[in-house]
Amino acid sequence: MSDDLELRDTADQLPDRFENPGFPPHEQRRGDVDPRANKFSERIVVALFAVSILGTIAMIAAYFAFPPGETAASMQRSNLAMGLGLAFALLGIGTGAVHWAKSLMSDHEVAEERHPLRSSDEVRAQAVEVLKEGAADSAIGRRTVLKGAVATSLALFPLTIVVPLVGNVGGDWDVASFKRTMWKKGTRLTTDPLGRPIKAADVTIGSITSVIPEGLEETAHPLDEKAKAVVVLLRLDPRDLKIQPGREDWQYDGIVAYSKICTHVGCPVALYEQQTHHLLCPCHQSTFDVADGAKVIFGPAKRALPQLPITVDTEGYLVASSDFTEPIGPSFWERLR
Q: Quick one: which of 103, 125, 159, 325 could link to 41 by a disulfide (CB 3.0–4.6 Å)?
């Protein structure tokens, strides 16, 4: 009871409203009082935007100097060179803008009362004057080199996006290529990456194997073809399979093959939970039920993994019955579903 009285007495002593403490004393920056320091800060900002300009130029030069090629090493070299150029292009713009705001623009604290969404004409005119005063205070009108560096870096940066897009127009933009892979009737399933043909009798229940088409390395663009054609091969107890209508002959004695490319953003699915028959994509945790047509049961993916129809040849090796009957991977603009 005494505690309640103490709390009530304390509440009675609190004021209805607090006095506005106002702003703390304004502390001038070194550049506000020393013209040489102010000029030095301007040079730093110019240098940072110049770094962005050089980064953009380096990125475009790397795009032409280091084409991706067909090997992992050439792709790594190309991505590294263009990535470094793009990093410096963005870093220069970002750090230059931050340093400009902190060292050259006005840092006086300003407060205004809350007001309706549409300010009065007087307030709007006052706001324009404040902006003009801020611009005058930062001396932007007299900083021609700084303005030139900012304008040049911002004007050149979009080239880091436009040049690769324009350069890739052609075969890489042929979306019809996503609707077909090198799988065809009679193509043997082989282990990835050794390329050994797989006999159905050697596939055990509960196993999962990454599979590529036979003859992949003999194609003109093996990496491109592998990115589309790679599948996962699994064997379940035939009694656990829920055969989809029209797919009665797409599996062989419980052995099924599905595209390894996640239908969300294209990551490789490979984590298999044997007891539940769930196949997990490690990137965003999309989960597919391989016992039920690889339907999505969890995660951001919206479509089941495409199934590759398979059978066996006269020697007992697993072969494809046809190509995928639907496009593999994520959705794209010409896809109907």
A: 103
